[in-house]
């Protein structure tokens, strides 16, 4: 059967700032696989299209093999449209696949959950998808499809993805073991002399992974997956559930309950956090219950608070609005290309935008720091886009990556819109 799949993001994308300035919601990763890949894997064999905001579509095209904001499934026998912010829900996906007719599914607030069209699209439906007009497409499908309103969980904020880590790493680990088991192996202690493996049957190692003597991998609290060319160096205690991405290194310390993306260097203490990728936390210091973007650099002894002294739930600020997260432990939310100086101390629930330089002198009590801010305890000033791009270019070239025109243009847009620049003007 010829099947097409469209994954889209809705208006809640700004709730996930600063991580979604440069990526769609469905590229966030609460586990081993990102949200879009979880949907794709649940509908194998589909022709996939990704729909996103026009301001990031050029960046997304550089990051994926799939069609972006375009659709070629004219002759598909079935077409699926799935909201990329949905919490992974195998039961829902199975029920959707079994539906024998076209259906439009919304939530109780009228937000779009999913659409399934059985049969080939009519001309006007196809034209709407070709033009990226999802609203028009859904309106036309409503005229001939069953309509259903259901209560189904979404991710609404970054802290929800972070606190879903244990469940999602376990689910993704089971998926990898069941579907890609020939690519990964359980560790043979004789092959890794001097390394200790606790519950080795719940540990998977990718091709060319290195586990050096003097390391401990403890899967007694959850599974551990070390991806291709991952490396764990001596004096590192790894506690599952944990994912270490391709070509990432753990360079010593206690690393617990986290999802670490590709090409990272992580040491010190990391607890129940998501690091999107290409980030350095090489030195001592604690980062806990946090979501960190790409190309972030933590100066030595950078530490965040993730628990209030009164043991009340943590509040976090997004887009100038304060939110009670409902969680006892919430740390930091840090945008791409941001750097902290040595000894930086971050407040509980702090949000830091893109390309900031944080020079701490005591605890930073701010709850939200705008993108492109040069921050110290004495003053805050705009980090000019010219200087920022020079640093970003050097940063990326150190990992053999290039600052593309698409990324440069988007960074310039975010810089112009940042409150710190508006205040300057």
What does this structure look like?
Helix content is 22%, strand content 29%. With 425 residues, the protein is an alpha/beta fold. It has two domains: 3-156, Spore Coat Polysaccharide Biosynthesis Protein SpsA, Chain A (Alpha-Beta Complex), CATH 3.90.550.10; 160-424, UDP N-Acetylglucosamine Acyltransferase, domain 1, CATH 2.160.10. The strands form six sheets. Strands 8, 10, 11, 13, 14, 16, 18, 20 and 21 form a nine-stranded parallel β-sheet that branches.
Give the helices and strands, then pairings.
Blueprint: E1 3-8, H1 35-42, E2 47-51, H2 57-63, E3 67-68, E4 78-83, H3 90-98, E5 103-106, E6 112-118, H4 123-130, H5 134-142, E7 146-149, H6 158-163, H7 165-179, E8 196-198, E9 203-205, E10 210-211, E11 215-218, E12 224-226, E13 231-232, E14 236-239, E15 242-244, E16 249-256, E17 259-260, E18 265-271, E19 274-277, E20 280-281, E21 286-288, E22 291-294, E23 297-298, E24 303-304, E25 315-318, E26 321-324, E27 332-334, E28 339-340, E29 345-346, E30 350-352, E31 357-359, E32 363-364, E33 368-369, E34 373-376, E35 380-382, H8 385-397, H9 405-417, H10 419-424
Parallel strand pairs: 1-2, 1-4, 2-3, 5-7, 8-11, 9-12, 10-13, 11-14, 12-15, 13-16, 14-16, 15-17, 16-18, 17-19, 18-20, 18-21, 19-22, 22-27, 23-28, 24-29, 27-30, 28-31, 29-32, 30-33, 31-34
Antiparallel strand pairs: 4-6, 5-6, 25-26, 34-35
Helix pairs in contact: 4-5
